[in-house]
Amino acid sequence: MRKLLATVGVAAVLAAGSVALAGPASAAPCGKVVVWGNGGGVCESDYAPDGSFTRCDTVYVLGIGGTNCYRVYP
Known about the structure:
Number of domains: 1
Shape: flat
Strand content: 35-45%
């Protein structure tokens, strides 16, 4: 039981440290992960002067899928 509590404590400290040291949020880079024909990803453009941006969602299931891009307004 003590080993379990120690392991959970170490994991919590590592998680808190990674959150504290994380950089500021920004638009996600374009990228996707497809493993054996399954997967996808999200791509966001930089912000426009009006605060809107373009987001593209990519999804593949068993090799069939595609990308859907749309404008997100504030």
